[in-house]
Amino acid sequence: MLPPRQHLRGRTSCPSPRPTSAFAPTPDPLTPDRDITHAHFQAGDTVVVLKGMAGGELWGDAMRVVAPSWHTPTDEDGWRLRDATGGAQSYVTAHPRYLVHLSRRCPDCLIYLRAMEDALFTRFADRDELIDCGWYTTTALGQLVHIADIRSGR
Asked: How far is residue 113's CA from residue 116's CA, in Å, rounded to a whole number?
C-alpha cells in the first residue's frame, strides 16, 4: 500500500462531472458504521470524501471544512464543506463519518483509509478506469448523503 497522501494526491478531483461505472452502486463495507464525531474535524481542515477507485488508487472529492452545520439526513452535527473547484454545487453539508483528513495524518483516518483501500482494491484491482461506487448523492438542501443514510421520502 502507498502512503495515503501520495496515494490520494492527484486523484481527489473528478475528471468529469459524472463518472460512470459498470459496478455502481457497490456496497460500502465501512462508512455506515464508522464512529467519528463532529469534534474530530475543525474548520480549515482539508478532507476527502472517498467515492471509489481510479487506476488502482482511491478516488474522491477533496474539500475544505468551513463551519459546523446541521446534517438534516442524519439529524446529527455535520460540517459545511467547500469544494474549491466549484461547479454546480460549491458548498455541501456532510456527516463527519464521510470525511477523511488530507491536511494531517491522523490515526483514525489512516485506519479507515487503509481498510477502504483493502476492501476496494480486492474488488477493482484489474480495472483502470475511474469507478464511482455510487455511495453519495446531494439533496435539494445541499446535503451530501450516503446511500445508507437516505430516509424514505427524501
From this structure: 5
